[in-house]
Amino acid sequence: GILIADEVRFRDAIKIEAPVASHIANPAVTPEAITITLNLGLDTFDVLVNELSKLGDDAEGLSLAELDNLLSNDDYVKVRGRLVNAGLVFAEELKVKVIDGSSDTDVKLQGPIEDDPVTDPVVTILGITINVDTDQINVYEGPNDNLIDRDIFFNTVLTGNIVSAEGKIIGGVIDWDKLEIEDEE
Known about the structure:
Blueprint: E1 14-25, E2 33-40, E3 43-50, E4 54-57, H1 64-70, E5 76-85, E6 88-97, E7 106-112, E8 122-125, E9 128-131, H2 132-135, E10 139-141, E11 147-148, H3 150-156, E12 162-170, E13 173-181
Parallel strand pairs: 3-6, 4-6, 10-13
Antiparallel strand pairs: 1-2, 1-5, 1-7, 2-3, 5-6, 7-12, 8-9, 10-11, 12-13
């Protein structure tokens, strides 16, 4: 009746996918850490990577020094992690896609809705405000990937619900085009 665990991991619902804006080795935080700043159009978001972060894709098997040497601006990263404080996520998992030439402009932001109360036309995820009137969101999804309309989205979503937003960086700003209420894991 006793389970002896070799490893225990907590998975948070914070996900960010975006191009790299910059990165620095960060001995002020810890001797073995890198802070990666992600390009979110007019905003940026910092990701802390250390020896506890699981590295994947083009970064799989690399040390932090090798990761620091590998990264270039506009490389594309996918982060799953835990919010440390406003504007900073600790990367539990970091996947890197090295870009040769053209950059990937897709952006995905997933986290709990911060607005209290949630009111049409604005949602705030990880400090990033999305105004559906100016961004002209054209796809809304509820749990289980069911298509819903704007009214149902705003009548359903509550403070703290996990929502993902997807868009593209165009002309230095994000053109958000999709909001989705994520399934409870």
